[in-house]
């Protein structure tokens, strides 16, 4: 099975597998949705809980992006028998280092200009909050390195993949127990301080990356065997599960769910669901304009991810000054979010294209 999968994944060296591009495009659109409200939370406090629950199913985005990165990294390792895993990690780290250094520097400069102290800026960097979504880069570096360390163990037997998933489940239960007050308060305060980059929320995606790589043929066959109706029902059930778990987690905290919003079983479960539902999609099954949009969004997903995170903070700062004394109802917030979503996505994409044409391809592609 593994050899068949390897042949399948390495058969396209000049272009990426289309369904992975599709998943990246869908995921980056979903990422932008979480940054699309540019007014203070106090202006829609009565609608906030409903909005968060309604859009909870889109939290598949970061888990899917992480898993895609791990699948592609495993393919790179399998295709490079001469290079060691650590050498390939170093190459990947250097590749990530360029956009990380650039965008973190831009965000740091903006924070300092805005009056934040150096200590606040340093804390924001390590907590992955120097710009909205910056935690992703800290997480992916940790995952890639840990993957290198445990890859041999994962490949010793299939059971080890599921063992890692069980460990992830135990860690989630620990988080649930901590949030629920079963442990002393300093434990909760430590988790709050470490924020989203803390590795305990993300280890399971290493197992998913390896499993999907090893079983790609089975995933593809399963996807082809499912009708569109079956896939829609599965996606709806997954969405309902994510909304329900988000409600459970939210009921356990008195303020914002962050940084525990991705400490969810349904987030892990959503990854194989997304792969199975979309693995059968190919370029010929979609209209050409849609294919072009997917490829553009996938190509510039890095730039969109970073630029939208920085722009959203700038727009939120402006919106806070303009609307701090204004209240919005639920329907108004839906409209504001959708408009902000579209505007932020288009602006981030256009700026990414502009930067590439200026010779800065490595920071946006």
Output the number of helix runs.
16
Q: Determine the strand fraction and express it as a percent band.
A: under 5%
Rg calculated over all Cα atoms: 20 Å
> What is the residue-mean pLDDT, rounded to a whole number?
92
User: Uncertain runs with pLDDT below 50, 5 residues or more?
Assistant: 1-7, 11-15
Element pattern in H and E: HHHHHHHHHHHHHHHH
How far from one another are the termini?
32 Å
Overall strand count: 0
Helix content: over 70%
Main β-sheet, in a few words?
none
* Broad structural category: mainly alpha
Rough shape?
A: globular
Number of domains: 1
Can you tell me about this structure?
This protein has 365 residues and is mainly alpha-helical. 73% of the residues lie in helices and 0% in strands.
List the helices and strands and how they pair.
Layout: H1 2-10, H2 18-33, H3 45-54, H4 61-79, H5 85-113, H6 118-126, H7 135-156, H8 158-179, H9 185-194, H10 204-214, H11 216-225, H12 228-251, H13 265-278, H14 288-299, H15 301-323, H16 330-357
